[in-house]
Amino acid sequence: KDSISNRVFWGNWGEKSYAGDLKFDINFSRDRDNVLTSAMQLYDGVMVFEDSVWNVSKSKIALVGEDIVVDDFKITKGKSYVKVDGVVSAERSKNLNLDVNQISLRRVAHYVPAMKRVDPFGMLSGGCSISDYYSKEGRSFEVALQLDNWGVGNDTLGTLSVNSLWDKENQEMILRGENR
Prior knowledge:
single chain, mainly beta, six-stranded antiparallel β-barrel, 2 helices
């Protein structure tokens, strides 16, 4: 069994802080069928984006043959979080799930230039699930998101709920949205 241990520190001395401290080990092994597994064990850590401190929870990410396995990857700041858990696989019974809670749209827009020009705001919560990723018949995904007190510029537009799923048979997205 081969392994690599890493600890990554970064930081800047600019007007706003961008910094981090992450430790992780990567192990390489083969099973009885000679299938290669590359497993990364991520330990509790911290990342700072514009003076905003986010905690990184202990998790595991592995490449097992063609599957990508994510075991409880989560970054948090108070009640806000982004969580990824599950498997990207050709097996229909396996899904990769993304959950978000109280993520500031304005903060996301800061890192996406096309969004920044629109100046959106609001708090995003909800989730997304992807399955059949490698399937020849096509991927399957479902999305359920809510954007509370959202708007653009100085205009508050309400609460937006968006639900969608992929219709494999017709190869089209079914999208339902409602703003109140």
